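tokens incoming
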């Protein structure tokens, strides 16, 4: 490996460390309480070093936002081989939920924190939300395929896609913020808390409703 390659590798490794430290602090301490100085202290570098790679805290949040969407797209990539659009729609919902369960920190940055979208609007007001729109377009294409097979014919494609996303997003948000856990504990359903079974059951009930819309 030459000098140029080593420098580039060092640069990418340092950027990854910055993002990892920022993600941890954003989630555990909150976005407002996290400063560039705190991020720098977490990786034992000076704040000046971070400014070599990122303009400010919102720049870091948006970089994490993009990284998370990359992981989500990877998870969805294999679903293009599911021929039946209704089965694909169900698989997309399950994959989305599993992503939130596996990566609650990324999920919060991507879909709950407002700062990444504020960064996009402030710095690139003319640009589209490419990361989110690519995922949403895949969902709309799947809904359109379902309509061709007799599902959701009384609904507009965009509205059905938004409804599907809203329901699954609501389930994920309730789960990662521990609202489901709190309700299960209050109801004495401890086994549901331990196995995340409440999330699975509610999603299953939603799928049963979808199957009736044919």
């Amino acid at each position: 490996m030459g000098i140029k390659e080593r420098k580039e590798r060092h640069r990418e490794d340092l950027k990854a460390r910055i993002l990892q430290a920022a993600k941890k602090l954003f989630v555990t301490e909150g976005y407002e309480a996290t400063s560039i100085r705190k991020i720098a202290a977490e990786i034992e570098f000076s704040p000046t070093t971070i400014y070599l790679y990122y303009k400010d805290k919102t720049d870091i949040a948006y970089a994490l936002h993009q990284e998370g969407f990359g992981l989500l797209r990877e998870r969805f990539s294999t679903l293009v081989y599911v021929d039946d659009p209704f089965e694909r729609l169900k698989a997309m919902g399950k994959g989305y939920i599993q992503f939130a369960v596996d990566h609650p920190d990324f999920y919060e940055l991507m879909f709950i924190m407002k700062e990444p979208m504020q960064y996009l609007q402030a710095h690139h007001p003319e640009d589209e939300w490419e990361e989110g729109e690519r995922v949403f377009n895949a969902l709309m294409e799947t809904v359109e395929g379902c309509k061709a097979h007799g599902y959701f014919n009384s609904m507009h494609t965009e509205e059905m896609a938004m409804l599907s996303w809203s329901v699954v997003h609501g389930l994920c948000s309730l789960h990662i913020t521990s609202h489901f856990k709190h309700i299960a504990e209050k109801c004495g359903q401890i086994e549901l808390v331990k196995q995340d079974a409440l999330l699975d059951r509610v999603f299953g009930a939603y799928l049963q409703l979808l199957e009736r819309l044919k």
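note: The mean pLDDT is 87.
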